[in-house]
Amino acid sequence: MPLTLYKVDASPPARAVMMVADILGVKYEPYDINPVMREQDTPEMTKKNPMRTVPYMEEDGFCLADSHAIMLYLFDKYGSAEHSRLYPTDKRKRATINQRLFFDCGVLFQRLRSVMAATYTGRLAELSKSMIRNIDDAYRMLEAYLSDTLYLADDVVTLADISVITTMATLHGLVPIDEQRFPKLNQWYNKMTKIELCERINQPGAEAHIASLKAFMEINKSKLNSKL
Questions:
Q1: Please, what is the angle between helix 67-78 and helix 159-174, to 10°?
Q2: How far is 171 from 138, CA to CA, in rounded Å?
Q3: Which is it for the CA torsion 29, 64, 51, 152, positive or negative?
Q4: Alpha-carbon 193 to chain mean position
Q5: Which H, E and C letters describe the chain, residue by residue?
């Protein structure tokens, strides 16, 4: 059976997997699901993916969730010498990439997820001060990560950059990067967004995601105001 990728283009983690698959030349069957409508909560899909998250993949009966785990699996299985810069064998470079991936999973995306969850459940009409402060703090950390290298883990694009740019593409649309306070992050973001792969796969989904969040916020604002 071919690899099946359960995804929605607006999902930042799904876009990260889609870009890595594209780089590696991995062919897959796309299966679009709507996480807002909780289509991933069916008994069949929950059995395959107890986390009930997007994306997840299935290949010959093997199911795997979490974009970071999927990216690493795809690299291990389908990567070749020409792709080594994405995830080099040097232990310290690989450890740094892993740390940036864990940062994306455990810190950066969680700042975005707090906005998404509250928005799509009708509780958020605009970002709170604490949300903006937390996102701003994540930008501070990314600025620091870019202090010694051109990209997040090396002087070339790695899996870490591909993962983080998808989260940042949505966050930047909600809380724009302050180029005076975070010049290195702003420069990195502009370089990444001009890469053909990002223009083709990441940007359309990011724009859809931003538009969706802002539209839901407007709906929430109307509903909340009507209760006053």
A1: 150
A2: 10
A3: negative
A4: 14
A5: CCEEEEECCCCHHHHHHHHHHHHHCCCEEEEECCCCCCHHHCHHHHHHCCCCCCCEEEECCEEEECHHHHHHHHHHHHCCHHHHHHCCCCHHHHHHHHHHHHHHHHHHHHHHHHHHHHHHCCCCCCCCHHHHHHHHHHHHHHHHHCCCCCCCCCCCCCHHHHHHHHHHHHHHHHCCCCCCCCHHHHHHHHHHHCCHHHHHHHHHHHHHHHHHHHHHHHHHHHHHHHCC
pTM over 0.70: yes
Cβ atoms of 166 and 133 within 8 Å: the answer is no
**Placement of tokens 């407007």 in the chain:** 218
Return d(Cα 19, Cα 199) in angstroms, integer: 11
Give the model confidence (pLDDT) of 135-149 as tens digits. 999 999 999 999 999
The reported pLDDT for the residue numbered 1 is 65
* Residue 220 token pair: 């929430």
CA distance 108 to 104: 5
Residue in this structure with the two tokens 């870009």, named with its chain if needed: 19
